[in-house]
Write a structure and sequence with these properties.
single chain, 647 residues, alpha/beta, Rossmann fold, Arc Repressor Mutant, subunit A, 7-stranded parallel sheet, 46% helix, binds adenosine-5'-diphosphate, binds zinc ion
Length: 647
Amino acid sequence: MGLGYHPDPTMSAVLSDPETTLASEPLQVLAQVFGYTQFRGAQQEIVDHVVAGGDALVLMPTGGGKSLCYQVPAVLRHRAGQGVTVVVSPLIALMHDQVGALHEVGVAAAFLNSTLEGDEARRIERELLAGRLTLLYAAPERILTPRFLAMLESLHERKRLSLFAIDEAHCVSQWGHDFREEYLGLSALHERFPGVPRLALTATADDHTRADIKERLQLEAARLFVASFDRPNIRYTIVEKDEPKKQLLRFLRDEHDGDAGIVYCQSRKRVEETAAWLNAEGLSALPYHAGLDTDMRRRHQDRFLRDEGVVMVATIAFGMGIDKPDVRFVAHLDLPKNIESYYQETGRAGRDGLPADAWMTYGLADVVNQRRMIDESEAGEDFKRLQRSKLDALLALAEAHDCRRVRLLAYFGQASEPCGNCDNCLRAPATWDATDAARKALSCIYRFRQYGGARAPRAFGAGHLLDVLRGKRSEKVAQYGHDELSTFGIGADLSEAQWRLVLRQLIALGHLRAEGEYNTLVLADSAREVLRGEVALHLRVPADPRPHGKQGKAARTTRTRSGGAARPPLALDETGTERFAALKAWRAEVAREHNLPAYVVFHDATLAEMARSVPATLDELAGISGVGTTKLERYGAEILRVLASPA
Ligand code: ADP
Ligand code: ZN
């Protein structure tokens, strides 16, 4: 299949052509090689620092553009005779596409991993030792083998080892969520090759994890770059969980017909059920979780990357390293563990910068389940305490009635103004003062504990509590004589749904705990403050269960496209749409020939811009974002031909 490395005729043509002046400035490389006109955010600063040989630790959100932070320096340093950049990446399944993307822009790159035949691996090793590679991708366990270290040694002696880029650097920390034992060995790189600059990159690192990365990778002296964590094109929405599957289906049909996206669920079982159900409803959905065999996982991932409009229903086993740029939504049917996970998962939407949705349903059971998972885990008390406080922060986000983005960014230490692009900004939720209701519920639970009549248990679950509060004479109420309690019927004015919201908030805020097999409700110490009226409680009025109400939908139509499966990412007239379709058909051919996902050839946004502006010459074509020198040379003439006669 010609996977690892193919000598690139275009590249050698460029290199041997005395008329072509090779760019030696970061911005020129960005434009000529990658076809982009501007660095994003902190990229320029990071690139400058690394090109000059400095170590760096980069925190940048998912989709922020981390790859260019080492790819541009890799090209520049290779051109300056400094040799190869070694990229440490934990995910061998994705190296193929990453390397393919570099070949498309004319950069000599390869990967070494267990999927290669022996011959192919030897060939790449020879290319590496001959100094012909600009970038080499490998997994940490590969890099730490004696054979590989010996090759690095040989390059190092000849001053042909340019840079180490350590991707997903949080994997080195046990505090992070993706700890990988093999990462611990990477400190060897610094010990054996002390002069070679290192760039560690991650999208998620709280203070703890950050400290771990620095210590374990020996990056104490590295410069820290914290990019803006804002992903302005992502719209955050969190809805009351009502009938989650139906809510999801409505969201997909109303907002994302024909779009590719990811639906996260907590359990394998729920993944299977949800995928089957979506399929039965006519969507193209695939399951993905760690219980499926490797082959099926790979097939499903491939289809997600290569076909259009596939919905991947997955546990968190799916997603790290997925760099598909046109994921239009990430939906959560269950609550993630904490804000770091939520942000990393939702960050997989809209890497291309076009509008995308992060949508979540959230309900009482989520709070109870997550709390329980922490309580029942085998972890030590310190770890549990940390997990609880992280969960609390996420619950506060879910219950919030102010701007979600302001809260998210504040969590990552960044101040901001209300964003205008989250559910709460678009439609300020109504709130009501639930202080009184909360006190009634807590005092009823208190009475259960005090009341000894009819040998009743001292604690109950939400169902019985609501019966008592609402004055319902159920069998259990009669059996325990709970209709004699002073709190019997004091909450008849609220509906059951409203009461559940009150309970959820009380649990989310930590005033109540749900314990044991039956989720019996128990007062926490802080409940006393609520009972004394020292804490006020303001709750959201449950919104219209539709994922986006009328207004959200209306606001959205101004930014969506013409409908149907092949929607261009910007408004095109009829002939423009035809040209776009023709370009996509052409791209599909190329992608098939090269055995790569279509977006590696060109992003939708690039094709749409071609269809809109209809360049007539190669020069004009070169001006479009996403068209670098190599792609221009390879594909320019064909694109002009497709544009000239789309049919
Ligand atoms: P990350 O690894 O941080 O999640 P990527 O490196 O995959 O993000 O970049 C996300 C997307 O943004 C990619 O499709 C990439 O081509 C695009 N991108 C990154 N930097 C730029 C830039 N300066 N100009 C235009 N597009 C960019
Ligand atoms: Zn907002």
